[in-house]
From TrEMBL:
Taxonomic lineage of the native organism: Bacteria, Bacillati, Actinomycetota, Actinomycetes, Actinomycetales
InterPro entries, per database record: AAA+_ATPase, ABC_transporter-like_ATP-bd, ABC_transporter-like_CS, ABC_transpr_LolD-like, MacB-like_ATP-bd, P-loop_NTPase
Keywords noted in UniProt: ATP-binding, Nucleotide-binding, Transport
Limits of the ABC transporter domain: 13-241
This protein's GO CC annotations: plasma membrane
Protein name: ABC transporter ATP-binding protein
Amino acid sequence: MSGQTDDHAALAFRVRGVRHSFGQTEALRGIDLDVGRGEVLAVTGPSGSGKSTLLHVMAGVFPPDEGSIEYEGADITGLDEAERSDLRLRSFGFVFQFGQLLSDLSAIDNVTIPLLLAGWRRKSALVKARDALEELDVADHRDKRPGELSGGQAQRVAVARALVTEPAALFADEPTGSLDTLAAEKTMDSLLDLVRSRGTTMVIVTHDPRIASYADREAIVRDGAVSFGGGVGNAEGVGNVG
């Protein structure tokens, strides 16, 4: 397979022959993909192309119908739902288009949720959550509920929640899709600063070329298959398909 790497130690994700269908509709059609450790990969393509399905299969939200997915050298394809949930809790962070913050909780309480689920004591979780909000420049809004925040503020709270456990990999599905240009740029600048400083692997689904330009490399999904744009990853031979 042209352009793929045999250096598994350099990979966060290794996807081979992945297929996934919804009923009679085949969303993914035998995808091969490598994502390097610390790489920021943009997954682009038209609506209905399969890009969000690819993200969810890689993240273990649901297993592929065929093929295999390795994360950090371990095959995660055969994990059951409880094992996939544990992997997501321990190792992955998620940011979605509309943030999906809990409306009845304050910003800081929303950010503590992953920590509490991971077994942190509430007092320690609150300190960690406050620090995460500070990094995203929204600590002054920590006691506000989502409905009291602007769209950009709410999305930065969602980013803080995704990163508060310092996950090794972050999955972002249209994270700025509901924001205006200025708020989108501020959110992405903050997000990328944190991801790159920590060496976090990020897979970001977007339809916006401006957002894709933040990534090291672009994987273009059309009709359930992948092709590649330019970028750092291609020069290093990581993640191309044959």
